[in-house]
Design brief:
The protein folds into 4 domains: 47 residues; 187 residues, Elongation Factor Tu (Ef-tu), domain 3 (Beta Barrel), CATH 2.40.30.170; 53 residues, RNA polymerase II/Efflux pump adaptor protein, barrel-sandwich hybrid domain (OB fold (Dihydrolipoamide Acetyltransferase, E2P), Beta Barrel), CATH 2.40.50; 61 residues, Helix hairpin bin (Helix Hairpins), CATH 1.10.287. The longest helix is centred in the N-terminal third of the chain and has 55 residues. Strand 14 and strand 15 form a beta hairpin. By secondary structure, it is an alpha+beta fold. Helix 2 packs antiparallel against helix 3.
Length: 391
């Protein structure tokens, strides 16, 4: 039996047998390490993208969850004491149009809230009877005019007496008066808009029999509107009556508080209201473009008492001021952030009459504050402008 120990094994084969297994394990380990590294990179990228998406979704959610509030831009008024009073908007020219003649309504040509022009026909009666009456009156007038012309010719020829001529003249005058009345009756069977405006109410319907003087359509003008306030006697007694026509005011609508409208003094009642012992003062203004101001809307009128020459002073709505102990504060909207956030700021306010308070320190013109609902807010809360939606 041959001695295995004596068998001559080539060195290259022994090295191959020792080295080959070592290389195989190394390659396998490197392959596993590379796959683990690649998986780690992919997992990290997915986590990073997921984090970005969560951040984006979080920002969108914050915008959607931001509390809607009424914004109010702080503005400066002229010197003196600024006072704000509740006001009611009315139309300076408002008419209730009627049918002066009886008849049956043939057509109603407008609806409520329609805008109309001056001279536009709004409604009409069945005018056939009035048209027939006008035709008869026209024929009678023509006959009377011809009879008068013949009488004048005969009188010039001394063929008839003067009293005959006078009778023909009187008959012509009567016929002309009847013609004018019939022409007016036909015209009054139609209701026309006396000015450009808006129809507020339609009070009749087609085929309805109406008596003379029956209200048919109400119309008001939008070119000139009025804001009426109740002023206490303490301010009336100190008012400079000689300069009342120079008294200006600012109208702020309840539905659009951020847009002031300039108004001018129009009239003042000289007798106090029996219940409130206040005096009605009316200011006139024009409806601005892009703002649909209608009678019946609630508003505030700001007055500057004592002149406009002193240093500027800001005012804020009464509802915008909250209290912590004895300190007053407002919520300032930080519009530079997205979404907007509120921050509490303490201010010093003075005494006021009406719905606004003067602020002596703590606010500057141009800053935006929350106009109402201060008790429901918290420091850093996200907010967005409140927008009125149609009912």
């Amino acid at each position: 039996m041959p001695d295995c120990a004596g068998v001559d094994t080539p060195k290259s084969k022994v090295e191959d047998a020792l080295v080959f297994p070592s290389l195989t394990v190394s390659n396998f380990a490197m392959m596993i390490s590379w796959r683990a590294f690649t998986f780690a990179l992919l997992a990290g990228g997915l986590l990073l993208c997921s984090g970005c998406r969560r951040d984006s979704d979080k920002t969108a959610d914050q915008s959607e969850l931001a509390r809607p509030v009424i914004y109010h831009e702080v503005s400066a008024a002229g010197g003196g004491s600024v006072r704000s009073f509740p006001a009611l908007i009315t139309a300076s020219d408002r008419r209730e149009l009627t049918f002066p003649r009886p008849g049956v309504v043939e057509a109603v040509l407008v609806e409520e809230s329609d805008r109309v022009t001056a001279g536009q026909t709004l409604a009409r009666l069945d005018d056939r009877d009035y048209a027939s009456g006008l035709s008869a009156a026209r024929a009678k007038l023509e006959n009377a005019e011809q009879a008068l012309q013949r009488a004048q010719t005969l009188f010039a020829e001394d063929a008839i007496a003067r009293n005959v001529l006078e009778q023909r003249e009187a008959a012509e005058q009567v016929a002309r008066a009847e013609f004018d009345a019939a022409e007016k009756a036909l015209a009054e069977a139609h209701i026309e808009a006396p000015f450009a405006g808006v129809v507020s109410r339609v009070l009749v319907r087609e085929s309805q029999a109406v008596a003379a003087g029956t209200p048919a359509v109400r119309i008001f003008s939008l070119s000139q509107l009025e804001a009426t306030i109740a002023v206490p006697a303490a301010l009336i007694i100190a008012a400079d009556g000689s300069r009342r026509t120079e008294l200006g005011a600012t109208v702020r609508l309840e539905v659009g508080p951020g847009r002031p409208i300039e108004a001018l003094f129009k009239s003042a009642a000289l007798e106090a209201d029996a219940g409130s012992q206040s005096y009605a003062v009316t200011f006139a203004f024009e409806s601005p473009k892009g703002l649909n101001v209608l009678p019946g809307m609630n508003a505030e009128v700001e007055l500057v008492i004592g002149g406009r020459e002193a240093s500027e002073q800001v005012t804020v709505p009464l509802r915008a001021v909250g209290m912590v102990g004895d300190a007053n504060f407002v919520w300032v909207v930080e519009t530079g952030t997205e979404p907007h956030q509120v921050a509490r700021r303490f201010v010093e306010v003075g005494p006021g009459i009406g719905e606004r308070l003067p602020v002596s320190s703590g606010l500057e013109p141009g800053e935006v504050i929350v106009a109402a609902g201060v008790s429901s807010l918290a420091e850093g809360m996200a907010v967005r402008p409140w927008e009125r939606t149609a009912d």
